[in-house]
User: Which sequence fits this backbone?
């Protein structure tokens, strides 16, 4: 397995709209393993293909307390089960050290394929529901800061550019 480089905002590649996964061969299996390793090492609770410059509709996540519940979602689609929204503080491995409250559907149903292409669906709420929505956004080139005011987003951008300059 290998650690992958995580793209950081405002890298334009994060805005790429991902393609559906059609090939479930070795290359995909390696990518998924590497994404898990990269996510756990970061450490983070979710990582989408776009974040490692692989523009396929997939993400991995693990919201369990002891990080022992790895899940893969491929070609995911979710729908809200009701109108209730919940604000929750979000962060993103592509926007390090920045957190903001984002409103998302509280209860959802998600349908996806597993790493071998087998369909599954389940309902989710709370942190898992939030995370699935955040990661699915990545497959569309959407970031959680897109839900903030333009002013706030501009501040995040400045902060990130400064951070990148400092690390060069
Ligand atoms: Ni993210």
Assistant:
């Amino acid at each position: 397995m290998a650690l992958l480089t995580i793209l950081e905002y405002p890298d334009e590649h994060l805005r790429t709209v991902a393609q559906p996964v059609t090939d479930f061969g070795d290359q995909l299996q390696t990518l998924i393993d590497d994404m898990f390793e990269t996510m756990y090492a970061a450490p983070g609770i979710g990582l989408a293909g776009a974040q490692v410059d692989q523009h396929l509709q997939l993400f991995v996540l693990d919201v369990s307390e002891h990080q022992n519940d790895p899940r893969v979602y491929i070609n995911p689609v979710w729908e809200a089960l009701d109108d209730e929204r919940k604000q929750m503080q979000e962060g993103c491995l592509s926007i390090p050290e920045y957190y903001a409250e984002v409103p998302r559907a509280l209860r959802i149903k998600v349908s996806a394929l597993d790493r071998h292409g087998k369909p599954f669906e389940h309902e989710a709420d709370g942190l898992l529901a939030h995370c699935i929505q955040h990661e699915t956004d990545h497959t569309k080139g959407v970031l959680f800061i897109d839900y903030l005011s333009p002013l706030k987003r501009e501040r995040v951008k400045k902060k990130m550019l400064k951070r990148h300059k400092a690390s060069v």
